[in-house]
Every structure is written in C-alpha cells, then in structure tokens.
Amino acid sequence: MKDLIMFLILSVIAVVSSLFVFLSKNIFRGALSLSLLLVTMAMFFAMLNAEFIAAVQILVYAGGVLVLILFAIMLTKEREPSVSEVTTSRAVALIAFVVLSLFYLAKHTWEKYVPEKEFSATGASVGTKLFQTYVIPFEAASFLLLAAMIGAIYLARRRG
Amino acid sequence: MLTGEYIAIGVFALIAMVFPVITFLLSRLLRPTKPEPDKYLTYECGLIPFGDARKPYDVQYYLFALLFVVFDVEAVVLFPWAEIFKSFGNITLLLIEGIIFIVVLALGLIYAWREKALEWR
Amino acid sequence: MVPLSSYIMLSLILFSIGVFGILTTRNMIRILMGVEILLNSANLNFIAFSRYMGDITGNVFVLFTIIIAAAEAAVGLAIVMMIYRNYLTLNVGKIKEMRW
C-alpha cells in the first residue's frame, strides 16, 4: 500500500516533468524539468532494489549529461520559440496510442513474475556479473567512450 | 523493497523542498511592499546593465564538461571493479581488465592534452 | 508490492511522450532531451524486469545503456554546436543545405 502511493506520486511527477520538457517556453526550464525526471527515475530504481544503478543514474545523468545539455543551451542562442507544436489532432493521436496500448498491456498477464524477497543489485553483485560474463562489452564500452571523447573534442574545439 | 533506509533521504528531500518555500512566504508576509522601477535593476548601485543575459558562452566550457562526463563514467564503472576486488577469484585477470579500461581512456586524455583542450585560452 | 504491469505502463507512457516530443519539436537540443527520455523509459523497463525475474543481467545492461547515453549526449551536443556555428540556427527545418 505504501509502495503503491509512492509509485503513484513518483509516476505523476515523472509524466508531468517529461511533458514539461517539451511544453515549456524556455528551453532552460525544459532542461531543469528533465533533471527532475532523471532524479525521479533514480527513485524508481531505488524502489526496485537497484541501488547501484540509482547512484549511477544520479552521478552520470543528473550530474554529467545534464550539465552537458545546460552548457549546450548556454553556448547556443535560441532565436525562436521552440515549443512543441501541439495541435488537436496530434494530441488525440498521442492519447489514442497510449490508451490503446494500455488496453493491450492490461489484457496480457504478467502475474507470473513475482519478485523474490531477497533481491538486491548492489555494486558488488552488478560488478561480479559484469566482470565474469560481460567483460568484452565492458572493454568495448571503453573504446566507445574513447571514440566519443575524441570525436566530440574534434568537433567542438575552436578552429583557427 | 522500500525500507526504512530511504525514509531519512525522503525526510531530507522534503525539508529541502519545503524550507525555501516557507522562507519566501514568510518574508513576503512580513516585508512592506512598495514597488519602484529602480528596485528592479540588477545592481542597486553601479552600472546599469545592458544587453541580454543569454550571451553565447565560450566553447571551452563545453570541452571541460565533456571531459568531466567521460571521466565521471570511468569512475562510476570502476566502483564495482574496486568493490569486488577482494572476493573475485582470478585477481590477475581482473587487474588486467581494469588496466585495459583505464589505459584506453588515458589515450583519450592524451589526445585532449595534445589538442590543448585542457588549457584555458 | 506494485505489480510489474504498472511499471511497464509507466514506461510506455514516458516512451510515448518522448516520441511525441521528438516528432513535434523543431529544436535540436530538445530532440536530444527527448532521446534521453526514451532511454530512461527503456531503462525503467529493464530494471523492473530484472527485479521481478530475479536476474541481475538487467542491471548490468542498464549500466551499459547509461554509458552509451553519456557518449551519445557528448557527441550529439558537439554536433549540435557545430551546426549552430555554421547555420546560426537550431531549427531542424531550416537546415537543408546538403554541403557547405
């Protein structure tokens, strides 16, 4: 019961903040609303016993990626309003899609998935799985980060 | 599940959110309100501000933020690495895996250094 | 305990909002923010299934997704800024030259 109330409050915050990302007149406020969404997501992860991922979410997303987005907004000067053009037909399409898919999901039975009582995804358990089974993707991720870093520096540095 | 450990964080978050609201409300209730155009200037005395506050910043800020994000990710991934170090079976293998990861990202740092992305110009 | 289907439904709603926003906005930075929303709704699904199936692999996968999202944001925003430097606009509808 307590969990359900928590879930409802958090999901209302998540949905409203994700809508505000696109509907706010000022793009800076949209980015701050995105940060609220990311922190809410971290709370969901903590609710689902994924403490390590919740911490990573706050450290990398809310602390790193969001700073990048804010800097990109401050580095460029927006000349025209960029609010999503929400016409009636578009809104109807979105709501119809969501409602129909929710009906489809409700028809499906997910009851066979019952959570185990003792499940916790701490740094140690995630790390054991990561370094025992997923070593190659881990090293590949380092090359991906290297490529992203070199590419972004090459693109963004000042010329001349 | 959501146990008592997170209640402390929740209480902290609640206080942090409610405190500024109450402070602003209290000061609004207590203070006298006499609006004058001079009071809306940025500086009470000194230069009269001109131009737009949303000036395009220097790209150097973005480069620093970029490097921060990359090494943030590296640090986050090395946390579980350090955490399982003692209990892992094959320590040499684990050490080699970690060193490869660090060296590959160090190549990126060397590139950034050579491109003078670390210097403030 | 919240049933698994509620997490899937929330993830679906967030994903729809993200796609809707990406399709209706013209600003490049807003489109990238929409991509972050999409990635987050997918992550929520992964974590929920990981918890309800008792398998830690979902958590590992989300860790990779977050790493890749950081790389994507870094390169994407660098490209956005280079386009801005060349065109002085962020409107995707106005950028239609094929080369410069």
Structure description:
The complex is a heterotrimer of chains A (160), B (121) and C (100). By secondary structure, chain A is mostly helical. Chain A is built from six helices and no strands. The radius of gyration of chain A is 20 Å and the shape is globular. The longest helix of chain B is centred in the N-terminal third of the chain and has 26 residues, at 5-30. Chain B has helices spanning 5-30, 59-83, 91-114. The model of chain B has no long low-confidence stretch (mean pLDDT 84). Chain B has one domain (5-114): NADH:ubiquinone/plastoquinone oxidoreductase, chain 3 (Methane Monooxygenase Hydroxylase, Chain G, domain 1). Chain B has three helices and no strands. Chain C has helices spanning 4-24, 28-53, 57-87. With 100 residues, chain C is an all-alpha fold. Chain C has one domain: Helix Hairpins, CATH 1.10.287.3510. In chain C, helix 1 (4-24) runs antiparallel to helix 2 and helix 2 (28-53) runs antiparallel to helix 3 (57-87). Classes of the chains: A mainly alpha (160), B mainly alpha (121), C mainly alpha (100). At the A-B interface, helix 1, helix 3, helix 5 and helix 6 of A face helix 2 and helix 3 of B.
